Amino acid sequence: MDTGSFIQKYNSEFQKALDHIEITDHAGNLLKYDIGIELSVESLLEIQDKNRRIYIIGNGGSAAIASHSAIDFLKNGNIPATSFNDASLLTCLSNDLGYENVFVKPIEMLVRKGDLVICISSSGSSQNIIKAAKAARERDCLVITLSGFYPDNLLRGIGDLNFFVPSFSYGFLEIIHQYILHSILDAKMYCHDSIDVFNKNQALS
């Protein structure tokens, strides 16, 4: 296949994944995409109103998404947000407790009832993300998951809101997971903070 044909296929497959995002609630009920975004925005407003916090976790590329998104929620959304990506934290806890528990301990120590924990995993099968999501639910936190690969992945069944991207492409999943998080924050900023996300985050006139 030549490069031109590949790009056509690439664009077509990406659009297909974007068009077929599925959102489910904790009971497994399907929600329309705009309803899923609206409910997510409502959770951000509640977090902001009640002085709660957002924690975002992921591995590898998803860790980069977590860091990027935490900064955006903090700076642009004016909501306390962080990710557990400090190198000393990760290496210490994985060495002492096992990598599957690397996010569980910070959640147990730092996360409080009513906080929001966003869990990102391309496969939806990363044990450290699954265990962290369960730990967050045990602490009565709101949990939002972003996953891909198989529709019955374990992570997808844990969240209060679950965004599933039907793709096996890591690149597509990472881009679309970032797109979803931007959509949630940008909807909050545009609709509730009067910030023009389409024009350099200037104030809406």
Compact overview of the structure:
The protein is of the alpha/beta class and 205 residues long. The chain has seven helices and nine strands.
Give an overview in words.
The chain is α/β, with parallel strands linked by helices and 205 residues long. The chain has a single domain, classed as Glucose-6-phosphate isomerase like protein, domain 1 (Rossmann fold), CATH 3.40.50. It has 7 helices and 9 strands; from the N terminus they run H-E-E-H-E-H-E-H-H-E-H-E-E-H-E-E. A 7-stranded mixed beta sheet has the order 2-1-7-6-5-3-4, with helices on both faces. A hairpin with a 5-residue loop joins strand 8 and strand 9. The longest helix has 23 residues. The mean pLDDT is 97.
Q: Please trace the helix and strand order, writing H or E for each element.
A: HEEHEHEHHEHEEHEE
Strands of the widest sheet, in order across it, are 2-1-7-6-5-3-4
Radius of gyration: 17 Å
Corresponding CATH superfamily:
Glucose-6-phosphate isomerase like protein, domain 1
Count of distinct strands: 9
Pairing-aware structural class of the strands and helices?
alpha/beta
Shape designation: globular
The CATH level-2 architecture is identified as 3-Layer(aba) Sandwich
Query: Quick one: biggest sheet?
Result: 7 strands, mixed
CATH class categorisation:
Alpha Beta
Point out poorly predicted stretches.
none
The number of helical runs is 7
CATH topology: Rossmann fold
